[in-house]
Write a structure and sequence with these properties.
Helix content: 25-40%
Radius of gyration: 24 Å
Oligomer: single chain
Number of strands: 18
Largest sheet: 8 strands, mixed
Distance between the termini: 25 Å
């Protein structure tokens, strides 16, 4: 049977199109009948990262018999598997154990303020209120979290001490656990399967019916979704051209993202009428300088590291917002800085960053020495400047007054124990805050403010949660909280 795309069908069936305004259900049946569907599922999830896997598992557990995950890469994980894994959640038992004052409401207030009030308060409050449930859900599905003195910490640009890390390979610990659940729940993951079209009744109206995909070797499939399609693809931080369109500074920077994070699904969503917000808010974090492989990571724990420039001088308070840190580093000579930690700081990084730092040591991109003066010589900065930077910081830990304004809560650990370590970094595109508009049920909203029936989105393909600037540690909170919400709501809303 010849396959007919939605657009071909509409173009060659004027009578059906004319009747659509009066007989919407009849048109839907006719449109679906015009496509020779290769397979039918209750819920189709696009993307096998943390957001997609949590949506798929939640949809299956909510009663859907057939759930499938489509992944354009040859492996699962998306950007989640590359993430440090820090997860922000105001969990009473955790913050009381750590002697910290916190609450979901404080988490929401800080998230909204950090995004300059451009985040949707409804989405943000739901995010922070359900974050503790997401941590417990992950635990129930096989993820183990660190449980010792460093369990709760302030992650890079996290602005508050409420992050925790999984035990295992960073963000990969989440992926590993959820892949096991998918196997147990008989949720197939179709790799090398790229979505090339999201099929809707009309170009800009009606229900989403399914997707058209291309597989390795050029095979095309049409997959029908009885309940809904969940778009859980990454953002577009790996797309030089698209990021430069929205922020011209970004085009020349590298990225921390995996190569598939190019915004393909975002464009597909816009093509069928999805509204967007915040596409010009593009976040960066430190990464390796061009030409150096296996960059070290010494900056995850804000209370443990310093930034210094190529002159060996501090230039920014290390606990600033990510956009402030980005702009400060881009203003430095060659847009390069050094991150500095001592032996205790290096030890603390071993669970989350240990493997990559060990590789960096072997390849010579991570430097160490038994004194600050010797470290300065190794990295080529003036020894007197670096010593002054470290000494001034250590004095600030004693006085709780930092000349650059670092908050008292992260003036707790001196840099005094040898050996001392340094890694050279520049800014890399890391997270795109903008994307399609969603409501609290993770339903996609069109450009007129209406729900697109049968379509859900979660994670970095969405906009409206992080505003102008994402708080460090909130990405994991976002993808697993709204992943669960999207999966459950798609499961209970059949056509």
């Amino acid at each position: 049977m010849t396959k007919l795309s939605r657009r071909v069908f509409l173009g060659s069936a004027p009578a059906a199109a004319a009747a659509a305004g009066v007989f919407g259900t009849l048109f839907s049946s006719a449109a679906e009948a015009a496509i020779n569907w290769d397979d039918t599922y209750n819920v189709i999830v696009i993307g096998a990262g943390g957001a997609g896997l949590s949506a798929a598992v939640s949809a299956k557990e909510a009663g859907c018999k057939k759930v499938v995950v489509l992944e354009k890469m040859m492996f699962a994980g998306g950007n989640t598997i590359r993430a440090g894994g820090g997860f922000n959640a105001a969990i009473k038992a955790d913050y009381e154990k750590a002697g910290i004052k916190d609450s979901p409401d404080l988490h929401a207030q800080q998230t909204l303020a950090a995004g300059d009030g451009r985040g949707d308060p409804v989405l943000v409050h739901q995010l922070t209120e359900k974050a503790p449930e997401s941590v417990q859900w992950l635990k129930d599905h096989g993820v183990k979290f660190e449980d010792h003195i460093y369990q709760i910490y302030q992650i890079y640009a996290g602005l508050y001490k409420r992050a925790r890390n999984p035990i295992g390979p960073r963000g990969g610990a989440y992926i590993k656990a959820l892949l096991e659940v998918c196997k147990k729940e008989d949720i197939p993951i179709l790799y090398n399967t790229r979505v090339v079209e999201i099929i809707r009744e009309h170009q800009l109206s009606g229900r989403v019916l399914g997707v058209k995909v291309e597989q390795k070797g050029g095979k095309t499939l049409y997959l029908r979704a009885l309940n809904g399609v969940v778009a859980a693809a990454d953002g577009f931080a790996a797309n030089d051209r698209l990021t430069a369109i929205h922020d011209p500074r970004m085009g020349q920077l590298g990225t921390t993202n995996h190569p598939g994070a190019t915004g393909d699904v975002l464009i597909d969503l816009v093509d069928i009428g999805a509204g967007t917000r915040g596409l010009d808010y593009i976040q960066c974090i430190p990464g390796g300088v061009p030409g150096e492989k296996h960059a070290p990571n010494l900056f995850t724990h804000v209370d443990r590291f310093l930034f210094v420039n190529l002159d060996g001088k501090r230039f920014i308070k290390e606990d600033a917002r990510r956009d402030v840190l980005r702009d400060a580093m881009l203003d430095q000579p060659k847009a390069i800085a050094w991150t500095i930690v001592d032996a205790d700081g290096f030890e603390q990084l071993k669970n989350s960053k240990g493997p990559e730092n060990e590789v960096a040591l072997k390849t010579g991109t991570l430097y160490y020495a038994d004194s600050i003066e010797d470290l300065a010589k190794k990295i080529g900065v003036p020894a007197n400047n670096l010593k002054e930077a470290v000494d001034t910081y250590n004095k600030a830990v004693d006085t709780k007054k930092d000349p650059l304004g670092r908050a008292e809560g992260v003036l707790v650990n001196k840099i005094i124990k040898a050996p001392f370590y340094a890694g050279r970094v520049t800014m890399k595109r890391h997270h795109t805050m903008g994307g399609v508009i969603i409501n609290k049920d993770a339903q996609v909203i069109d450009r007129r403010g209406n729900v697109v029936p049968g379509l859900y989105a979660v994670g970095e393909v969405t906009g409206g949660i992080h505003g102008t600037n994402r708080v460090g540690g909130n990405a994991m909170t976002d993808i697993f909280t709204y992943g669960r919400i999207a999966g459950v709501n798609a499961a209970k809303n059949p056509a």
